[in-house]
């Protein structure tokens, strides 16, 4: 069985890495997407694992904690980008080019993450408490089927709407949904790798 602390650590790390890499738009497997989509999809299933192990309140706490950490990370990157270079080294343009935050993308990413994953939490909870606790793979599919499109639309339009043509933004939305759906299907068996340590709460 996977310890809760491992799942939580991977979840927060994936959130941070996806926010950093979302600054670049790439072409992958014939799809146009922000590079953060290469790692972010696993967070939905990881959130489901946390929910199963520790309950709804714990899942909510981890989601909000990840958002706070990402805001802190972006703020730290911004402060560092504004600090003067050491005279001994001279300009270091690679830092600003790579890590200086684009606030439009940062804000859109964090808002989409919090909104979609809190929605995922509620759908998962309703399914387990009102429908059935059997067929654990179904609860993952149902909650992700709601949260994945929601996240993709909120992020893509918040980050790139008005910057890129509408067709390009919808292409990013579509790519996000497709890749996240694939990752959801691949990761389904992991819901059986953690124990239900407490009833849904």
Briefly characterize the structure:
The chain has helices at 4-21, 42-54, 56-82, 93-99, 103-131, 136-160, 166-187, and strands at residues 25-28, 31-34. It has 201 residues and is mostly helical.
Number of contiguous helices: 7
Broad CATH class: Mainly Alpha
Shape: globular
What topology, given as strand order, has the largest sheet? 1-2
CATH topology: Arp2/3 complex 21 kDa subunit ARPC3
Termini gap: 21 Å
Radius of gyration over all CA atoms, rounded: 18 Å
Write down how many β-strands occur, each being a DSSP E stretch of 2 or more residues: 2
Q: How are helices and strands ordered from N to C?
A: HEEHHHHHH
Largest sheet: 2 strands, antiparallel
Strand content: under 5%
What structural class do you assign from the helix and strand content? Answer: mainly alpha
What do the pLDDT scores average to?
A: 87
Oligomer state of the chains in this structure: single chain
Proportion in helices: over 70%
CATH architecture: Orthogonal Bundle
Give the total of domains: 1
Low-confidence segments, ≥5 residues, pLDDT <50?
none
């Amino acid at each position: 069985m996977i310890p809760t602390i491992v799942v939580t650590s991977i979840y927060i790390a994936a959130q941070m890495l996806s926010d950093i890499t979302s600054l670049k738009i790439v072409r992958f497997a014939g799809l146009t997407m922000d590079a953060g989509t290469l790692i972010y999809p696993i967070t939905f299933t990881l959130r489901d694992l946390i929910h199963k192990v520790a309950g709804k309140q714990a899942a909510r706490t981890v989601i909000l904690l990840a958002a706070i950490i990402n805001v802190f990370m972006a703020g730290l990157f911004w402060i560092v980008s504004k600090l003067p270079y050491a005279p001994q080294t001279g300009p270091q343009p690679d830092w600003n080019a790579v890590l200086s935050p684009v606030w439009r993308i940062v804000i859109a990413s964090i808002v989409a993450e919090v909104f979609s994953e809190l929605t995922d939490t509620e759908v998962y909870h309703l399914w387990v408490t009102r429908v059935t606790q059997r067929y654990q793979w179904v609860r993952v599919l149902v909650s992700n089927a709601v949260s994945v499109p929601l996240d993709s639309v909120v992020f893509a339009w918040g980050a790139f709407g008005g910057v890129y043509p509408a067709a390009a933004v919808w292409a990013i939305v579509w790519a996000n949904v497709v890749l996240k759906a694939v990752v959801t299907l691949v990761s389904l068996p992991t819901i059986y790798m953690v124990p239900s340590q407490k009833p849904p709460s």
